[in-house]
Write a structure and sequence with these properties.
The chain is an alpha+beta fold. The chain contains nine helices and 18 strands. The two termini are 21 Å apart. The structure holds flavin-adenine dinucleotide.
Amino acid sequence: MRLSAFPPNFVPTRAIRSISLLMSTTPTDTDRQHDTRPVLDVLRRLNIAHGTDADLASLTWYKVGGRADVLAHPTNAEQLCELVACCAAHGVSLRVLGSGANLLVGDQGVPGLVVRFDAGALAGVEVRDNGTVVAAAGFDLMRLVSLTAGKGLDGLQGLAGVPASVGGAVRMNAGGRYCDTGQTITRVRVVSSDGRLHDLPRRDIEFAYRHTSIAADAIVVEAEFALQHGDSDVLRKRVLEIMGDKKASQPLGAKSAGCTWKNPTPPRRYLSDDAPRPADGDPHGWPAGMLVDRAGLKNFAVGGARISDRHANFIACDPHATATDVLSVMRHAEQVVLERFGVTLQREVVVWCAG
Ligand SMILES: Cc1cc2nc3c(=O)[nH]c(=O)nc-3n(C[C@H](O)[C@H](O)[C@H](O)COP(=O)(O)OP(=O)(O)OC[C@H]3O[C@@H](n4cnc5c(N)ncnc54)[C@H](O)[C@@H]3O)c2cc1C
């Protein structure tokens, strides 16, 4: 990864390819997507740290995949708004990378701009006396869980052991058996695809099983949580118990992105009382990991990617794995489960492919 101290006439590799295409032919939409020069101009003008042809694999939990044309680290919402507006005006694709704990980056990498919030106002947190916590999108969720438990604030301890940035946790409505991210949220601040800031009150946001109604192209910059005052010793103990539960059932040390697929039927608490449920014995009611396990796929491997024998919903990578290996394992398992049980597995893991 080259850092932002470019020589004055420096032009990144992929941009060179785009420029020669632009000079010789009429540009297609794809060519325009690769032309990141206007974005680089904004990054330099606003003095935002960035690199070109930047490695993404090391920023994901799978540790596989390609590079980004440009990776930038804006530090406040105003900078982000300008970048978003510039990308919109010039047809440059823009993606947000959180902690990379639910993300597979394709081996070809991704065109355009990737933003990551790891410094300044986009990575901070404020804890108020009344139990309100305002966390920026880049703040680490596990740090938020231990910080709030330590301060005797009750409400986030059920998210112990979920690796995420706050923004990624809001986007995925991350959670599990004990609670999910949306449960204690009172407001989310986003940047919309035209580069404007909006505050969304809780009543305007739907949180469902690994889903939120926040527009898919909106970028979360901050979330406000309303927590209750409690006993910090009890809360800290609960965090450790939940971590222990997760360690006992999941391969947390593996290079993975947690659960690969959503359960075909959401857990009961996400459904209304009268929502239809699969009958006993109907595979549509089984957890995704059970379907993969009963299809005999534990330990199924392609190259360096393997279905975990601890938890069949996890795909673990060895140091030689590629994103193509992971995708091959995913596709094979999806096909076998469909053929065996008639169930179409939906991916929980987000896949970024070029284009
Ligand atoms: C070992 C392990 C255990 C896990 N256990 C759980 C679990 O118990 N429960 C659970 O729900 N998940 C679990 N996961 C998955 C992961 O923790 C969650 O999906 C988490 O929400 C991912 O957050 P992230 O910041 O890493 O997002 P990323 O993986 O970086 O990104 C995921 C998606 O969110 C988008 N995104 C990220 N930040 C923003 C933002 N600021 N604004 C808009 N979009 C954004 C990305 O563009 C991408 O589409 C686990 C993963 C691992 C590796």
